[in-house]
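Could you help me review a protein record that somebody else here produced? Here is the record exactly as it was handed to me:
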Amino acid sequence: MTFSLIIPTLNEAGNIDPLLSSIFSLDTLGNQFEVIIVDDGSADGTPDKVRQWQKTHDVRLIERRAQPDLTGSILDGTAAARYEVIAVMDADLSHPPDRLAALIQPVVDGTHDITVGSRYIAGGNTINWPFYRRWLSRAGGWLARSICDVNDATSGFFAFRKELIGNITKNARGYKILLELLMTGQGQLRIKEIPISFRDRQHGNSKLSLTHHLAYLLQLITLAGGTVSLHTASRFALVGFLGVFVDVFIFQWMTGHGASLASAHISSFITAASFNYALNSKWSFRLHHAGHLQWKQFARFLTVGVFAMLLRGAILAWLVHTWDMPAEWAIFPAILTTAMVNYLGSAFYVFPRTEPPVSTDIRWRIASVGVACFVILLRLVYMDVAQLIPDEAYYWQYAQHMALSFFDHPPMVAWLIWLGTALAGQNEFGVRIGAFLCGLIAMAYLFALACNLYDKSTAMRSVLLFVIMPFGFATGLAMTPDAPLIAAWVATLYYMERALLANKSQAWLGIGIAFGLGILSKYTLGLLGIAALVYVILDPVARRWLLRPHPYLAVLVALLLFSPVIIWNMENNWASFLFQTGRVGNTQHEFATHQLLLQIATVLTPVGLVAAVLALRSIALHYREAPRKHLFIAVFTGVPLLVFLAISTFDSLRFHWTSPLWLSLIPTMAWMIGQNGISGNIPAQLRTAWRPMITISLLAYAFVLHYVTLGIPGLPYQFLSEHYFWKETTAEVEKIAGEIRQTTGKEPIVVGMSKWSAASALAFYSKAPVLDIQSRNLFGQHAAMYSFWNPIPAPSDRPVLLIGMKQQALESSAATGNFEDKLINTGEIHSRPVYRQDGLLLRTLYYRTAEGYRGNTTP
């Protein structure tokens, strides 16, 4: 085989002889190759060692006089090479010479354009490398995988066609030229990775330093389309440093004059951001600014600014309200944290690199990474500062009454909350950490599923669509049964695809575990079992599994995991099963298909609904191209959807019930974004529609979370009077209970006048002395699990304090169980305003008192 081997050197005198001896002793390389050693100014006699080899072997020496640079050395060596196939390896004996033939052959044969010696695929490894070097290498590879499909993009052992070097930009510098090569093909290059064993150097010292790592990060950002350099970064930092003074001065002045935390931080942020934009556009990113105000660019700046501001509010609330840090000090870490959002937003979105052009695929990849990271950070910060909604408090009550299962839901949500609060304490973070982890699991499995069905770019866009859809965002933050359900649903889909399409027998164990855990989360997952049976019946290849033991073992595993629910139901007269089967069609028949469509538009966004319809149409149009794959997607989406459509013709559904069924279709929706020429301009129109939808969705989530934690100046809390701010409301209830206790000398019975919402929220936020809290089952009304936890007590002369989420709940009627007949001397309905610590009105508390409890005489 004919090729040119380029070996860059810098003070490698001790390695030249053993390296060249190993290379020239290989029979697999033949004798039609040359070795080009490019020396970067060695001071240890390396060139003299090379000259000795030039006397007997085809070795050429190039001595560079420019600033030492690995990329520059390889470019110079390539320019001097005689052959059309180029191989590159290090001189420190870390790369195995015996793998050169395997590395070069695919390029010589013309089957591939680039081959990479990889440490991070099956068969590859690293030997004698310290932990920190392994961690840095892995981290660098993971960062690069956002823009290329190579597992070891930081490898220095690779081969390529010489003509590709002409596509590299002239100003390419750094020590990772492979990244530049990989990006030249805009995703069209044929790339192959071969496994290698990488050994740490035995002679000499490593040339890597912190400067090289920073240069690599800058190279990554630049190749991804960002306008980033040490020049712009330093100017941006200086502008930001000046902006901090403006920001902090206004913030401190406003908080010192009694302004709320929200008013102070929003006002100071807007002022400082305007100051920063003026200087950054004219100075930091001057080369990428037209010299006059561009409204499109300014709109992008405002968008990034609002994202950063809303995130900063979360960090401020977290530091001030959770960690009790004084506001005047909390502003500094909040500013530093959100400065990175501003910088990356400016580099990629406000002032992006336009020359050379970056492919649309790369733009979507970077957007996917940025949006996913922003959502994760938003969830992580807000899940500790946002108060629990009553639903979460109710499931927290599950964890205080641990059982094998519960009346209205399986036990998974209770188990996750119990574990989270055991580790992190009885607080919002402890309750929600399970939902946060379920969100990450769902993202990982969806990525893997989309990779198997389509490709990596589609997988990244799938995660993007998932986290910006309301059901995807919410289930990674709020601790409800939907959080583990979504994670288990997409995990089951992944293993179903591996078993039914890829024919992997071991995937059936994954199916059994994922399905079992999912059915422990919510019974809705059973629809996937029906869909799987339909698919196996329709697909001749998958039908063969019916004659093998694996599916039946998967069913057995799932049943074993589900057995706690079966046992609980056996012990409680099948209460949960009867309740769930009776929920559908138990009311007067009502045509609700039109409501179902509105619900789907809510959980998917309007653009998502249109994309889902087009995706189903695309599957039908392209069915013959990949019939088994398209049948898989159609069945696992269509069967649950048909069930819900059938139910909607005679009964209404909860708005979120259909959420998980779209997980099997999201990869197709994401795939359509990257296609051209399908049904005219539909993909282009979809891309255009998705961009504002993504921005609007993220802003809406961040805005709502900021609103409920810090507030928005000028926007009252009139929309949250029933379901939120129970922390402050409970404090007010405790005051009323204290007044009753002081007047009567008796501990009042506190009754939340709703099915379970009021009682659960009061229980979570009640402090010592803990209130005696009951629910409406006290008056013979069904109250879900409260009917199991709190049997109706005997008559009592203790005072009763009724708490209502709204005034109507305190009015005795058939709907409220005619509770006045069961109370002694019921008083009038009263109301109290509930204020935040800074004096802002939050909601109105409705309450009513009675002198005693007669007991429930209802049969």
Q: What stands out?
A: The longest strand covers residues 841-850. DSSP finds 31 helices and 16 strands in the chain. The mean pLDDT is 87. The longest helix spans residues 295-322.
